[in-house]
Amino acid sequence: MRGPDTPVRRLPVGFDVRVAGVGAYGPEGPTRRPQRYAGTDRQVRGMLLAVLRETTGPVHRDRLDLVWDDDAQRARALAGLVDDGLVEPVGESYVLAGDRILPVDRPPAGRRVPGPRRAAGPEVGTERT
After folding, report:
1. In what ranges is there compositional bias, type Low complexity (predicted)?
2. pTM (predicted TM-score)
3. Backbone angles phi, psi at 7, to 5 degrees
4. If you ran DSSP here, which 8-state letter would residue 94 be given?
5. Which tens digits make up the pLDDT trace of 16-75?
6. Element (DSSP H or E) covering residue 90
7. Helix (H) or strand (E) holding 59
8. CB within 8 A of 92, min separation 6: which ones?
9. Contacts for 44 with CB less than 8 Å, ≥ 6 apart
10. How many other C-beta atoms are found inside a 10 Å radius of the C-beta of residue 22?
């Protein structure tokens, strides 16, 4: 951001940065090389997430092991996904966060759960004639 005392500089009318060869980085080009993607943990994380998105339900670790050959890098990427809250472990399997099927709450043993209430009156089919 510029401060309140910074003068506004306008480009000359008709100036085209593409024709001038300046571009977004100036005449020298970018000051540093962009980070490579191939072989990074980011790539492995993306591949693991792709498998989890394509599948319904938990995905066993053996299936995720097929995604990437480097065991240490794959484990690091999977641990990062769990730490970031994007993936949840379910035993030996993993699911996308929020896709986990939770068990139905059960009442404590010996405690009766009320059933649906019925309207007062005689039972259907039990009328006396």
Report:
1. 110-122
2. 0.54
3. -70, 150
4. E
5. 655 555 556 666 666 777 777 788 899 999 999 999 999 888 999 999 999 999 999 999
6. strand 87-90
7. strand 59-60
8. 60, 61
9. 67, 68, 70, 73, 74, 77
10. 13
pLDDT by residue (tens digit) across 1-11? 556 777 777 76
Note whether residue 128 is domain-resident.
Answer: no
Query: Could you tell me the sign of the dihedral formed by the alpha carbons of 122, 123, 124, 125, in that order?
Result: negative
Residue 94 dihedral angles phi and psi, to the nearest 5°: -140, 150
Q: How far apart are CA 99 and CA 55, in angstroms?
A: 11
Output the CA angle 77-79-84, nearest 5 degrees. 95
Residue closest to 82 by CA, chosen among 90, 127, 20, 28: 90
59: in domain: yes
Task: Assign residue 120 a region (left: φ > 0; alpha: ψ between -120 and 50; beta: otherwise).
Answer: beta
Residue labelled with tokens 């940065």: 17
Domain count, the chain: 1
Interatomic CA distance for residues 110 and 121, integer angstroms: 30
- CATH number of the domain that 64 lies in? 1.10.10.10
102 lies in some domain: no
Q: Range of 66's domain?
A: 39-96
